[in-house]
Design a protein that fits this description.
It contains 9 helices and 5 strands. The chain is α+β, with helices and mostly antiparallel strands. The protein binds FE2/S2 (inorganic) cluster (2 copies). One FE2/S2 (inorganic) cluster binds next to loops.
């Protein structure tokens, strides 16, 4: 096992010269040239914004999607590869829902679809024909905050705020899951009502990452809304 100190470089150097199976320096040079050529070619690739919102020019790849977003019916013509996240942000301009990883790993894109929380980056908009979608914009307004939004403010449940829309949507749905008696991995008693304990909330919120580490304050906010002790 290599230790993460200055010795690692010496150890790798030794291994390099001892192991004939490792690639020669010249093949690395070739790879480096290939990489440089690839980087130059990448300059002509579409931008992230282009990729997120492909122009629906080819009718074979487009579809009409009807959804209700925050209580408002919406009709969209979308490239069938458009994720729900991109449909919300790029087509409906509801930018409260955030794109963190775009790979289902951070929870920043969490929205509530037909009462269930989902990662909107992992699902295509065309899969939600007729669905009711709630984003952070639909939970409350600056003048009339949702109780969970008010609790996050009161308990300082954020720092930079990037993860917060996803955290709040998730938190609202988590309390709904507990109320509906849906067990989690840490639920001890599967026969009685489930309590919104600190462990329950931490387990259920584990898919929502906060780089600022506001977890304990988020748990306090959720506990207040649930009427439990954090
Ligand atoms: Fe969807 Fe990270 S952006 S999980
Ligand atoms: Fe900054 Fe959560 S408040 S990532």
């Amino acid at each position: 096992m290599y230790k993460n100190d200055g010795r690692i470089f010496a150890d790798i150097h030794d291994l390099w010269w001892e192991n004939e199976a490792l690639p020669s320096l010249s093949s690395f040079e070739l790879s480096r040239r290939g990489l440089m050529a690839g980087t130059a070619a990448a300059a002509t690739l579409p931008t992230v914004a282009d990729a997120a919102s492909p122009a629906p020019s080819d009718p074979a790849h487009t579809a009409k999607v009807a959804v209700e977003v925050n209580g408002k019916p919406e009709q969209l013509v979308l490239d069938t590869r458009t994720t729900l996240l991109d449909a919300l942000r790029e087509h409906l301009h509801l930018t409260g829902t955030k794109k963190g990883c775009d790979h289902g790993q951070c929870g920043a894109c969490t929205v509530i679809v037909d009462g269930r929380r989902i990662n909107s980056c992992l699902t295509l908009a065309v899969m939600h024909q007729g669905a009711k979608v709630t984003t952070i914009e639909g939970l409350g307004t600056p003048d009339h905050l949702h109780p969970m939004q008010a609790a996050f403010v009161k308990h300082d449940g954020y720092q930079c705020g990037y993860c917060t829309p996803g955290q709040i949507c998730s938190a609202v749905a988590v309390l709904g899951e507990i109320e509906a008696g849906i067990p989690s991995h840490v639920t001890e008693d599967l026969t009685g009502p489930i309590r919104a304990t600190n462990m329950e909330m931490r387990e259920r919120m584990s898919g929502n990452i906060c780089r600022c580490g506001a977890y304990s304050n988020i748990a306090e906010a959720m506990a207040e809304v649930a009427g439990e002790k954090a």
